[in-house]
Write a structure and sequence with these properties.
The chain is an all-alpha fold. It is about 80% helix and about 0% strand. The protein folds into 2 domains: about 5-160 and about 205-325, no CATH class; about 165-205, no CATH class. It has 15 helices and no strands. Helix 4 runs antiparallel to helix 11 (about 205-235). The longest helix is centred in the C-terminal third of the chain and has 29 residues, at about 280-310.
Amino acid sequence: MKKRTFITVFGFAVSIVLLYFSLRGIEFRQIWATLKQTNPLLAFLPLVFIGTAISLSGLRWSKVAGSDVRFRETFPALLIGMFINNVLPARLGEVARGYVLSHKKKLSFTYAFSTVLLDRFFDLTGLLLMALLFFPRASLPHRVSQAIYLIIGLVAVCVLFIILLSRQSLANRLAARFAVVEKSFLAKFGKRIIEVQENLSRIGSPLTIILFVIMSFFTWLSMSVALWVVTRALGIPVPFACIPFVCALLNIGITIPSSPGYVGLYQFLLVYLLSIFGVPKYEGFTISILYHASWYIPYTIVGFALLLREHLRIKDIQKLETEENAD
């Protein structure tokens, strides 16, 4: 079985199982009754904050990618990547982002894709910072706190490792060691180390790196506000201080393989995280439906329109991903 096929089948299986557990014990009338009390004046307000977040992401990526890359080039590439992740399995969205940017700017795909990886690193640091700043220690059971500390600790180690890679001598030594290993995925990892190091060294200034982390923090804070507005639109009282923590763990958690658009996984994570703060399961599931739709629908529609405008074909992106895995 090919790697992509295995990931696709595994992702769909994960989504189906988690969607079952998300819905178990919930009656449809409970979800419908909660949806019927939606405030129409607030229902579309999350789009403002989601739009702000995606704009900040596009702006940050344009700065990460280099002085010759502009927001008007990264923004459509980002939305096309979101669209691909929403409709295709195996998370091809990141490959699509690199492909679109290389196509628009006549850059090598290797360089464009390396900027995507570095941009995702800053995404991760923003989530980590938000989780730490809004960590509700007093509200969580002891075992849950320990588990979350472990997750945040592992993420922090990964972040520290990436920062250490900015030292060229260390990156070169690691890449050289991995390059001689016969296992292809380790050799590929060695190549990625060099690509990330080259991008980090190009950014250079620690103040610039801090700026990117701050931009990432406010990107995810904006998404947190969107989630909080969804809870208010449904008339479900959730303290705002809890929301950024929920949003951070939710977006760290969706890195688990699942179906396109994170269906099932998204619902399971939101239902569980909100239940920690006393939100009933049926209300948590309703929140997950409305919040999921508030970004899934616009990302998909706009991303598809941009894909058509750029005259790009999905099969070209899939072919490129196959070649990338073969390298």
